[in-house]
Write a structure and sequence with these properties.
The protein is α+β, with helices and mostly antiparallel strands and 266 residues long. It has helices spanning 14-28, 56-66, 74-79, 114-121, 129-136, 163-174, 187-196, 224-232, 245-250; strands spanning 2-4, 35-41, 47-52, 82-91, 96-100, 109-113, 143-151, 156-161, 179-183, 203-208, 213-218, 239-243, 255-257. Helix content is 32%, strand content 29%. The strands form three sheets. The protein has a five-stranded mixed barrel. Strands 10-11-9-12-13 form a five-stranded antiparallel beta sheet, with helices on both faces. A three-stranded antiparallel beta sheet has the order 1-3-2, covered by helices on one side.
């Protein structure tokens, strides 16, 4: 069976990330009778796999729980309407976020409307789309679990955040901890950089939002902004965003750091 994992592999570093993914897949398939081959990336940068063998069904369930599987058709999407996805683009003029849910048909548009974000995150208070994006760090390739609301004949699919995703982001707002969102990096790289930079005392935990996007939770009283330079100088090609819980309560934007300006020392 050929399938697509709901993960985004960063452009320009695909060889490194595919190698790490293959290693992870081998770990997940340990003890199972399956043949596994990574076939490359889809048009949207998602890993395509070929899986076969006696334990194929069991392994597919492991993949579904670990990464998520892309829908094969609109009907597949409607049959299982709660899906992992990734933010693709912000369309401010149309007041929507374009969402990549893994469908390969370029004629389809998956949209998360600003009014849905307001209802789920801001109690319906009128806040511009750009402000909502900058408060929560809803940047390109940020992973979101969504629920499909409708699909019309013209190829427009409308979604909202799932209850679990809404509750997660609301929890971020309510807890008094800064978070550093790190994109285009592996969990092992972040753990090593935190150790090398001597930041263990400043970090309460590391949460994996996807294979390449992670949330570093700062300890109470630690300013995430102050840790970014020490982290970013040792992480190559990453995108960093500092989430402040007060930014959602008081209308202050979080802080994005453009990864392309941060390089590892030679």
């Amino acid at each position: 069976m050929e399938l697509t994992l709901l993960e985004r592999i960063p452009q320009g570093r695909d060889r490194k990330f595919q190698g790490a993914l293959e290693k992870k897949l081998q770990e997940l398939s340990s003890g199972l009778v399956v043949n596994l081959k990574v076939m490359g990336l889809s048009r949207g940068g998602m890993p395509r796999l070929q899986v076969s063998g006696e334990d194929e069904e069991a392994f597919l369930e492991i993949l579904r729980r670990s990464f998520g599987l892309a829908p094969r058709s609109i009907q597949d999407l409607l049959d299982q309407p709660i899906r992992k996805s990734f933010i693709q683009k912000i369309l401010e003029q149309e007041n929507v976020l374009l969402i990549d849910i893994g469908l390969e048909d370029p004629s389809l548009r998956v949209m998360l409307r600003a009014k849905s974000l307001r209802a789920q995150l801001f109690d319906g208070v009128h806040i511009p789309l750009r402000s909502m994006v900058t408060r929560y760090g809803l940047l390109r390739d940020f992973p979101l679990e969504v629920r499909v609301l409708s699909c019309n004949g013209s190829g427009s699919i409308e979604v909202e955040m799932s209850d679990r995703e809404r509750d997660l982001l609301n929890e971020w707002r309510c807890l008094p901890f800064d978070r550093i969102i790190i994109q285009n990096s592996l969990e092992s790289e972040i753990i090593e950089v935190v150790r090398r930079a001597g930041l263990e005392r400043d970090i309460a935990g590391l949460e994996n939002l996807s294979f390449t996007t992670h949330s570093l939770v700062c300890k109470l009283g630690t300013d995430g902004q102050g840790l970014v330079r020490r982290l970013g100088s040792q992480l190559e090609g990453v995108r960093l965003f500092v989430f402040h819980p007060d930014s959602c309560r008081n209308g202050v934007a979080g802080t994005e750091h453009n990864s392309t300006t941060i390089r590892s020392p030679k």
